[in-house]
């Protein structure tokens, strides 16, 4: 007597139409048939399909595998029963999957601890298309030739070793579907993280035009966007697509700027695509593959397989199945004489014919697979075979648990639980403030780092300094060079007209020394622009202090000369012999030497150094020169101020002396500008934030230098170039005489 039990199916989930399509059609047909029946019977439908391999048992496990691939394109018409289409290529890997299932069942039957007293059997069917899948599954569900009452044939328990579509995780829609492989949801998100890890921020996306591809690539794109990766294009096709559709996708790949492609598809589609890319010589692509093709050995034999060199992706963990090697080596046509595929397999492997033939040598089935090396006997990659092995054991343990139930107890039970209600508190996900990264608790970034835009990572703070790359830096550098240019031009004018009265009357030696020091003043402003270093920080402040003291010393010397020269014109005065040219030079040198000593002590005791200022701005670092010793800086500046005030007082006292003897009133104006600039500099320097303090210092240097240059030398250049009649000895003496009287 036979007892009808639920069939357990193994579906290879990446068939052309997909596992989901097969299950939907199967359940729909069965529900319609049972609804129309007068009694809840399961009645066989259609023609029975003979299994490729079968073994009797108390409980039968059904398996559906794609022993052949490459079915000719065929569109099913809904007006008649689908025809059986011949398949072309061998799939040794699927054949090994089937034998792994058989091996696991034999191993369980020999183990008396799992399901003692019960033998498992199997029926294994071949398919290579959606029509074959449905026909095989219908045969498995139909079961025996005679109808049996009360059997659950609308929701046959199904276990897959290869169906990874996230859509199958819907327990409401597929309550009887199980699998021993993770969902594509996790693979897709891992692939997005892999792309981000390698810094590929601009990628293309391709997929199967079925549930496997569409669901997988959709999850990938969503996860990639969360990782900050941009998708240039997303296209889908299938192995039965028309040729012009394949060409359209190839053209998109050719014209795109992204060279990284995420291909979420099966080995059938990737073969078609790579073949066309190879024909059109499109190379230089980085492929990222889903587990459906990334480890498929058959891709090594296709045209253009070199295009896939360097492809990366994820797959399930490899495993070992002890004893499977001997089981595979014992395969023989005599085990299943009715199996057409086993006969074809044997003839293909040994290149012979089991039937007498004049074309090929004859074989009798006594050949041995021990010496054969192909994908069937290769046991280095048992990733998916191990999933089948685990699935069979899962079925066996489920049966064992069912049989070990106590017959005196009911499955119904009374229980109580706390009713789920509204939470007492609820929490909103609030973004962390700037400078902290989002987590369960906001984590503060290190002092030299700041949070990125998304707030999920700390990145180094931006370093800013006053550079030539910004507009203000360029303008100040330009004004500095303009000042140098004007100074050199005036120096040339004075040199050309060095023997004229107006040049000689105003102490030409001090004039040339003053012009030289002004040139250095303009140039020293350039040391304040650019990235601060240890040497540039010391140079900019010492050069500024020494050159300005040299400049003010020359002006002070010229002022003293004017006063001495006026007193020398008085009867009985010989003051000029005490302040002649040599004394004037020594005076300037001594004033400058004092500043040199101040700067030397400053550099020895506490020199300026580069400093990362993080006080003014939280999100960036200002790289500036720390004074080292504030006393040193203000001493240098104070000494310059002392000389400038002294010079201003003397020039003010000499402002009404004869015009042609002196330039005191011009020096007075220049010192007035100089003092005004540096008095306003002090509060501006103290209050300016960040790198603006450097711009303020450069501005003060340039304005005071231009004030000295134009106030002292511009009137003389005007007389030399535009009023030459005033640049004569007679005019000078006449004017001097009139001023004295």
Automatic annotation (TrEMBL):
The record's section on InterPro entries has: ANF_lig-bd_rcpt (IPR001828), GPCR_3 (IPR000337), GPCR_3_C (IPR017978), GPCR_3_Ca_sens_rcpt-rel (IPR000068), GPCR_3_CS (IPR017979), Peripla_BP_I (IPR028082)
Keyword match Membrane: yes
- TM spans (from-to): 471-497, 509-530, 542-566, 586-605, 631-654, 666-686, 698-721
Alphabetically ordered keywords of this record: Cell membrane, G-protein coupled receptor, Glycoprotein, Membrane, Receptor, Signal, Transducer, Transmembrane, Transmembrane helix
Gene3D superfamilies per record: 3.40.50.2300
In the UniProt record, the gene name given for this protein reads LOC107702176
Matching PANTHER family, A to Z?
Answer: C-FAMILY ODORANT RECEPTOR OLFCD2-RELATED (PTHR24061:SF528), CALCIUM-SENSING RECEPTOR-RELATED (PTHR24061)
| GO MF term list | G protein-coupled receptor activity
Example GO CC term: the record gives: plasma membrane
In which compartments does the protein localize?
Cell membrane
Q: Pfam families from the xrefs?
A: 7tm_3 (PF00003), ANF_receptor (PF01094)
Topology relative to the membrane: Multi-pass membrane protein
Protein name as catalogued? Extracellular calcium-sensing receptor-like
Any signal peptide, and if so, which residues? 1-37
- Residue ranges occupied by any G-protein coupled receptors family 3 profile domain in the UniProt entry: 472-736
């Amino acid at each position: 007597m036979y007892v009808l039990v639920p069939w357990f199916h193994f579906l290879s989930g990446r068939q052309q139409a997909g596992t989901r399509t097969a299950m939907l059609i199967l359940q729909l047909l069965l529900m319609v048939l049972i609804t129309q029946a007068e009694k809840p019977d399961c009645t066989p439908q259609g023609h029975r399909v003979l299994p490729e391999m079968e073994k009797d048992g108390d409980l039968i496990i059904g398996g559906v595998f794609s022993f052949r691939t490459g079915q000719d394109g065929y569109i099913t018409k809904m007006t008649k029963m689908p025809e059986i289409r011949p398949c072309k290529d061998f799939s040794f890997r699927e054949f090994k999957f089937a034998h792994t299932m058989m091996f696991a069942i034999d191993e369980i039957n020999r183990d008396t601890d799992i399901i003692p007293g019960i033998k498992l059997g199997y029926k294994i069917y071949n398919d290579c298309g959606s029509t074959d899948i449905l026909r095989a599954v219908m045969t498995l569900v139909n079961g025996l030739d005679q109808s049996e009452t009360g059997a659950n044939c609308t929701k046959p328990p199904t276990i897959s070793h290869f169906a990874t579509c996230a859509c199958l995780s819907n327990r409401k829609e597929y309550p009887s579907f199980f699998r021993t492989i993770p969902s594509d949801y996790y693979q897709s998100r891992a692939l997005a993280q892999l792309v981000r890890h390698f810094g590929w921020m601009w990628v293309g996306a391709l997929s199967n035009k079925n549930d496997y591809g569409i669901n997988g690539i959709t999850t990938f794109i969503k996860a990639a966007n969360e990782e900050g990766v941009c998708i240039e294009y997303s296209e889908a096709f299938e192995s039965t697509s028309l040729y012009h559709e394949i060409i359209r996708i190839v053209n998109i790949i050719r014209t795109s700027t992204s060279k990284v492609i995420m291909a979420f598809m099966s080995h059938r589609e990737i073969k078609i695509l790579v073949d066309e890319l190879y024909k059109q010589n499109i190379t230089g692509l980085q492929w990222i593959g889903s587990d459906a093709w990334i480890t498929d050995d058959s891709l090594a034999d296709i045209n253009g397989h070199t295009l896939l060199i360097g492809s990366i992706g994820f797959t399930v963990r490899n495993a070992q199945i002890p004893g499977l090697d001997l089981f595979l080596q014992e395969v023989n046509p005599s085990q299943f004489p009715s199996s057409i595929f086993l006969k074809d397999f044997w003839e293909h492997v040994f290149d012979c014919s089991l039937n007498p033939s004049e074309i090929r040598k004859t074989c009798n089935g006594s050949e041995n697979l021990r010496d054969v090396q192909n994908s069937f006997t290769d046991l280095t990659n048992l990733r998916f075979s191990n999933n089948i092995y685990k699935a069979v054991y899962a079925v066996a343990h489920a049966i064992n648990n069912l049989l070990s139930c106590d017959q005196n107890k009911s499955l119904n039970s009374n229980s109580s639980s706390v009713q789920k209600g509204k939470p007492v508190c609820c929490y909103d996900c609030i973004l962390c403030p700037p400078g902290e990264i989002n987590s369960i608790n906001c984590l503060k970034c290190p002092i030299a780092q700041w949070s990125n835009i998304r707030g999920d990572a700390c990145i180094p703070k931006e370093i800013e300094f006053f550079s030539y790359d910004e507009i203000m830096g360029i303008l100040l550098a330009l004004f500095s060079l303009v000042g140098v240019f004007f100074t050199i031009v005036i120096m040339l004018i004075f040199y050309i007209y060095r023997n004229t009265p107006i040049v000689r009357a105003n102490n030409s030696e001090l004039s040339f020394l003053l012009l030289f020091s002004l040139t250095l003043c303009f140039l020293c402003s350039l040391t304040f622009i650019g990235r601060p270093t240890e040497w540039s920080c010391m140079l900019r402040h010492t050069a500024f202090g020494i050159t300005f003291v040299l400049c003010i010393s020359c002006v002070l010397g010229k002022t003293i000369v004017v006063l001495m020269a006026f007193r020398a014109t008085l009867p009985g005065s010989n003051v000029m012999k005490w302040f002649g040219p040599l004394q004037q030079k020594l005076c300037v040198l001594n004033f400058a030497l004092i500043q040199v000593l101040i700067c030397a002590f400053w550099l020895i005791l506490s020199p300026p150094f580069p400093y990362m200022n993080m006080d003014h701005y939280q999100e960036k670092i200002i790289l500036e020169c720390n004074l080292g010793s504030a006393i040193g800086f203000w001493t240098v500046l104070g000494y310059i101020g002392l000389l400038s005030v002294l010079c201003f007082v003397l020039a003010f006292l000499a402002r009404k002396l004869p015009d042609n003897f002196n330039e005191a009133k011009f020096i007075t104006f220049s010192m007035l500008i100089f003092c005004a600039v540096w008095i306003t500099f002090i509060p501006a320097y103290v209050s300016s934030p960040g790198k603006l303090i450097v711009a303020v210092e450069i501005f003060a240097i340039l304005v005071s230098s231009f004030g000295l240059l134009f106030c002292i030398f511009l009137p003389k250049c005007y007389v030399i170039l535009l009023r030459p009649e005033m640049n004569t000895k007679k005019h000078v003496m006449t004017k001097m005489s009139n001023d004295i009287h």
